[in-house]
Write a structure and sequence with these properties.
This protein is of the alpha/beta class. It has two domains: 119 residues, 3-Layer(aba) Sandwich (Rossmann fold); 95 residues, Winged helix-like DNA-binding domain superfamily/Winged helix DNA-binding domain (Arc Repressor Mutant, subunit A, Orthogonal Bundle). 40% of the residues lie in helices and 20% in strands. It contains eight helices and eleven strands. The strands form three sheets. The protein has a five-stranded parallel beta sheet with strand order 2-1-3-4-5, sandwiched between helices. A four-stranded antiparallel beta sheet has the order 6-7-8-9, covered by helices on one side. Strands 10-11 form a two-stranded antiparallel ribbon. Strand 6 and strand 7 form a beta hairpin. The longest helix has 16 residues. The chain is elongated, with a radius of gyration of 18 Å.
């Protein structure tokens, strides 16, 4: 089996070199660049399996790089590195198309573990491409989502959250369960991000459904209702 290809993007040579050494030791193929323009060129030359992307780059920030890559059709996961430990900043990054977020200073072991967790999730083949839950239909290959006959556009994180709800219809899921399955870590205990993304989904789904489908069970969590 070919080792996963990781692209490291950081303008600080010491951090870049540490990441290269640690990831190679963990068995990954590693390429490194130092700015946003080089990142886009590197992805076009040879699409990596995952990007470790610093948010603060000299020419453009990591969120802008991610947006451009997503618009160009690049779908592989992106792990952000940043010195900012702020919930709104995390939401901005994830909404831009990122998959995970690590603040500096970080543990190299943690970086490796998060990359392995992301790759396990994204490289796992789904047996069925199309899943249905009540009025919602989701194609896991094309990422098309319909509520009835209406197609809705979701960010990558919204898609993952809705998929988890659809795979567990009529079952109450706690915020901790959602954090574990959608983000795959406890997000420093900040359950507020779950509330934010549930709200985003409701705004997109409710206008097209016969009734509110994502229900709040106070003190317990959230449930996707598919039956009366």
């Amino acid at each position: 089996m070919t080792a996963p290809r990781i692209l490291v993007v950081d303008d600080e040579p010491n951090i870049r070199d540490l990441l290269i050494t640690s990831l190679k030791f963990a068995g990954f193929q590693v390429r490194a660049v130092s700015n946003g323009a080089q990142t886009i060129s590197a992805v076009l030359e040879e699409e990596p399996d995952l990007i470790v992307l610093d948010v603060m780059l000299p020419d453009m920030n990591g969120f802008s790089v991610t947006k451009r890559l997503r618009e160009a059709g690049y779908t592989a996961p992106i792990l952000f590195l940043t010195a900012k430990d702020d919930t709104e900043d995390k939401i901005t990054g994830l909404n831009a198309g990122g998959d995970d977020y690590v603040t500096k200073p970080f543990s190299l072991d943690e970086i490796v573990a998060r990359i392995q967790a992301i790759l396990r999730r994204t490289m796992q083949a789904d047996e069925e491409s199309v899943i249905r839950a009540g009025e919602i239909t989701m194609d896991q290959d094309t990422h098309d989502v319909y509520v009835g006959d209406a197609q809705i556009e979701l960010s990558p994180t919204e898609f993952k959250l809705l998929r988890y709800l659809m795979l567990n219809p009529n079952r109450v899921l706690s915020k901790a369960q959602i954090l574990d399955h959608v983000w795959e870590y406890d997000f420093n205990g900040d359950a507020g991000i779950v509330e934010s993304y549930i709200s985003y989904l409701r705004r997109k789904i409710d206008p097209h459904s016969s009734e509110p489908l994502i229900q709040t069970k106070r003190g317990f969590g959230y449930m996707l209702k598919t039956k009366s």
